[in-house]
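Thread: quick sanity check before group meeting

JM: Hey all, I'm pulling together slides for Thursday and realized we never actually wrote out the predicted structure for the chain we discussed last week. Dropping the sequence here so it's in one place. If anyone has concerns about the input, flag it before I start.
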Amino acid sequence: MLVSESCYNDTMIKVFTDERLFILVQLKQQLIDAGLSCFIKNELLAGGTGELPFIETWPELWLHNQADYNQAMVIVNDFKKILDNGENAPDWACPQCGENNEGHYGLCWSCGHQLTPEAS
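JM (edit): ok, ran it. Output follows.
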C-alpha cells in the first residue's frame, strides 16, 4: 500500500523498523492476522539509498490506530526474540504439522504455524 505523507495522522504510530523489507512483511502479516490495521512506510525507497541518508530509506511498520500499540508490541517483541535467537537456534519440528524447520525460521515452511518464544 502506498501512503503519501498527507495521509498520516496523529492516531498512527511506528512500531518497528529494519533495513530488511522481508522482515517487516513477515511482521506486518502477523499483525494483520491478529486483527491489527497496519502498513509499511518507505516500502519502495531502497533505490534511494546512497542518495538519501540510509536510515531514511529503511522500511517502517506503522499501526493505523495508537490504541492497538500494546497488543502490537507483544507481537513485535515475540517476533524480535525469534529474530535475535535465530542465528543460534536449533532446528525445530512444527507442533502443528510435524515438519522440520531450520532454527532461524520463526514460521513453519509447510503450514505457516508460528514458533512461539516459549517453544523455541
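AS: nice. The radius of gyration is 16 Å. The longest helix spans residues 69-86.
JM: adding both to the slides.
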